[in-house]
Amino acid sequence: MNIVLLSGGSGKRLWPLSNDIRSKQFIKMFETEDQQYESMVQRVYRQIKEVDSDANITIATSKSQVSAIKNQLGKEVGVCVEPCRRDTFPAIALAASYLKDCRGISEDEVVVVCPVDPYVELPYFQTLEDLSECAKTSSANMVLMGIEPTYPSEKYGYIIPKDKQNVSKVDLFREKPSTELAKEYIEQGALWNGGVFAFKLGYMLNRAHELIDFIDYQDLFSKYDTLEKISFDYAVVEHEEKINVMRFSGEWKDLGTWNTLTEAMNSPSIGEAIMNNECENVHVLNELNVPILCMGLKDVVISASLEGVLVSDKEQSSYIKPFVENIHQRIMFAEKSWGNFRIVDVTKESLTIKVTLQNGNRMNYHSHEFRDEVWTVISGQGVVILDGIKKDITMGDIISIKAGCKHTVIANTELELIEVQIGKELSVEDKTKYDFPM
What we know:
There is one protein chain. The chain is an alpha+beta fold and 438 residues long. It is built from ten helices and 30 strands. The strands form eight sheets. It has a six-stranded antiparallel beta sheet with strand order 20-21-22-29-24-27. Helix 3 packs across helix 6 (201-211). The radius of gyration is 24 Å and the shape is globular. The two termini are 39 Å apart. 34% of the residues are buried. The mean pLDDT is 93.
């Protein structure tokens, strides 16, 4: 099975745990059998592999999410990087070109496209296999997954099939309706549009070339920022006459708000939290190293991170976005391909960061023009390279790095550093990268 997972999102609705780099799919909040926590993207990736261990998975995403994806799924995962955001049709067109030109996928093979963040169980992915097989043998150019509605939702578009067979031709598409209209659609047998499509790769490439003037993947990548922002539904789905829909009646949730997300939590709290017996329907997600005490609260979600604290009635938490857009906060935590960093203190001319490198990983070889750095090793062993000179480092070592010095660090074990940046201009843009010294 060839699967393209669409990974987008700006991280506004799950503030303060999410931000422009760390969208909701990267928050580790689902408890696994070994009492660890995994994120949405880790959960979906694991579930796909459980159903089809040979599945060819490609994640279509923006540049800002690549490091988090590789941190959570490994460096070998297939990633099609969008140079900038251009909605779902350009993203799928680019992914189709990537599969053909970079991964060598035949135009006769079927590709399934779906979001990276549904909350589902294994039957969903078994249905994706059925969807792929249907697209392979059907005379239709595209097969959609339609989700059996459980209530008249205003949040989703609707697919109205011609009959009630498991696989049916599509009669009509309807946009997100009012509750009353949603009731009417459901009475007509309508299904939720969950954004899942299956098609032969050659079909999608032909449609992409009809709508975009490009030669191949590299050409499309180079002109990506000039493309019209348009959804796949508007550009392709609603204009396709040979289109079928397959029903899915299993568990499916869109965990897009704190209210819906807490419904999927296995326990009322993650992190340090204390609740008295008068609390009802309270959930706490705490990333700070301090306890949160809750007393007599009802129907409340509390979320705390280095970037802020949210205390909200669960229903009201769905309306967080316009308030968060007015908060201008430095990104205080991010996952990188080599590990992660947490900013622990900020002053006008200094920045103190806790850096964790995973075993066997390293930073880019780079220098800074406007700042000095001092690294203190607080655990683990590794190697630091300063202007081409290697030196073993271990707990308690202090490394001074002047502006202009080329440097990197390699972790021989998990390695933790306290990095203090000192200078009048402390910017992520102040970095020059070099080839790694052999």
